Amino acid sequence: MTQARFIAGDWGTSRLRLFLCDAAGAVLARAEGPGVAQAGDVCARVLAERAEAWDPAGAPLPAILSGMVGSTIGWREAPYAACPVRASDIARAALRFESEGRAIAIVPGLSCRNPSGVPDVMRGEETQIAGALRLGPELEQGRQLLCLPGTHAKWVLLEDGKVIHFQSTLSGEVFDLLSRHSVLARGSEAGSTDHPAFAAGVALAKTQSQAGLLHLLFSTRSRQLAGEIPKAEAASYLSGLIVSADVAGALALFQAPGPVTLVCTPALGALYGRVLQEYAVPARLIDGDKAAHAGLVALFASLEDLGE
Amino acid sequence: MTQARFIAGDWGTSRLRLFLCDAAGAVLARAEGPGVAQAGDVCARVLAERAEAWDPAGAPLPAILSGMVGSTIGWREAPYAACPVRASDIARAALRFESEGRAIAIVPGLSCRNPSGVPDVMRGEETQIAGALRLGPELEQGRQLLCLPGTHAKWVLLEDGKVIHFQSTLSGEVFDLLSRHSVLARGSEAGSTDHPAFAAGVALAKTQSQAGLLHLLFSTRSRQLAGEIPKAEAASYLSGLIVSADVAGALALFQAPGPVTLVCTPALGALYGRVLQEYAVPARLIDGDKAAHAGLVALFASLEDLGE
């Protein structure tokens, strides 16, 4: 039977996912737990309770953890590693300490001055990027634009496998807030790229980008009143507008005409892929969960290469 | 003593304000009441109860009402008047009927195809525009850009006193939602144009307008983490970013380099005036409440000129 070698943990604000891994990173067992917002001061205890069942007698397995566990609201703060960085630089900057006899490594977030000229940060996505490089080795070559959609989406420029810089966008959060609280999409069905209104939203934000998203959002309501889009498709229209504005801004900022690699759920991948298509930009998907796991495995391997 | 001639009512979603007026529009008495969201099916009763105290014996005074009272959630729907329109056209399109012996006129909203090429609507602001034309007669000359800031702000182009078209922006609602629900400005003081962070937000949205607001919002958080803006000033920064994006979009859409007339509260006027200054565009303020009242008076006079 394969031997357990280390524990990999994806520990965000709202959820902990632990994986018991062999030396090659294959998953031997899984466990879940509370996010750092709930675990707070007892992160050490939360990890130990789950890990002890996996430890060989008297020899706690090392653990590598990424996500908000390394933030000021997490277990211990792992300071951001400054771009440009390679995956091996990320491993080198990990915060390492011992807890109840267990070697812990917390993956640092990344910081940069973004293409808009202001500071930017990520925490957790750096591990997905390291995983994407492992899962898609061709990303190690040349100039590559990655997109990690989400509440605070990240657009990331790689050059020869190095993270040069990145830009965060609020597309996910703005869509979520407007669809839940505003009058714009009240009474709508859930958003779908299959609705004709979705394509109408994408097209408007593409052709009217100089107006800016603020000036286009109200059309979600006024075009319903004018009978141009059905009420049931309002959320789809709003989603099309917002993701299209996100894509238009990113393409203007990064001037990277090549294909975009999406690292996310298949659903978000389909959404962004469809919008990128309208901009004549090819896209491909790397599953976000697989990337997170591959990233933890790759970063653990880098730590070992550093001589642990 | 001056004689009461008519009743003017500003009847929005959340509030009714009634004014007893003489023939010249001077206010003889005031009353308040519930907005249409609450008054619902009993708008007729709500108005009658307040107006009867003012009526001369056996002769109900005519009433002119504007705002959401004319919407599908109001008393009766007053269909939108299509731009381009003059104030006299708005009066002509009023919805007129009798209620318990009282002549009622409900001011219609306006509709247009906006500079972004899609349908747009307003309801209530058309009365403030009519009032602004009364209070600032120089607005009757040439090309004039008006801005009515608010939850759904309106930018309005006048040519020789005629409303040509207008564009709605979601600046007020986006600021409100993000400052209440997002992590961006958590723990901040209330926004103030006096905070240095306000000017920093205005400047970033001005110089980085091609990136689009979605790509700039996260800097509210990341610049706090980097120590570039104090946490206490985060709401000011966010306000600067959003209003600057609103102004940049409007100036691109309307290409009206002349002064902008702001129709709003003094506080919003100071906010927008300060941002317009950064764009080298002069601004002047017409008080929004005064404009709403003057508009009702002007529209009532137009109704009388129509031969009532």
Unreliable stretches covering 5 or more consecutive residues of chain A: none
Order of strands in the sheet with the most strands of chain A?
3-2-1-4-7-6
Judging from the principal axes of the Cα atoms, what is the shape of chain A? Answer: elongated
DSSP strand count of chain A: 14
What percentage of amino acids of chain A are in beta strands? 25-35%
Oligomer: homodimer
Task: Tell me, rounded to a whole number, the average pLDDT of chain A.
Answer: 95
How many helices of chain A?
10
Radius of gyration of CA atoms of chain A, rounded to a whole number: 21 Å
Distance from N terminus to C terminus of chain A (CA atoms, Å) equals 24 Å
Overall helicity of chain A:
25-40%
Outline the structure in words.
2 copies of one chain form a homodimer. By secondary structure, chain A is of the alpha/beta class. Chain A has helices at residues 36-39, 43-51, 87-92, 125-135, 171-181, 196-207, 219-225, 234-254, 266-278, 288-305; strands at 4-11, 15-22, 27-34, 63-66, 81-82, 95-99, 102-106, 110-113, 119-122, 143-148, 153-159, 162-169, 260-264, 283-287. In chain A, strands 3-2-1-4-7-6 form a 6-stranded mixed β-sheet, with helices on both faces. Chain A has a 5-stranded mixed β-sheet with strand order 12-11-10-13-14, with helices on both faces. In chain A, strands 5-8-9 form a 3-stranded mixed β-sheet, with no helix packed on it. In chain A, strand 1 (4-11) and strand 2 (15-22) form a beta hairpin.
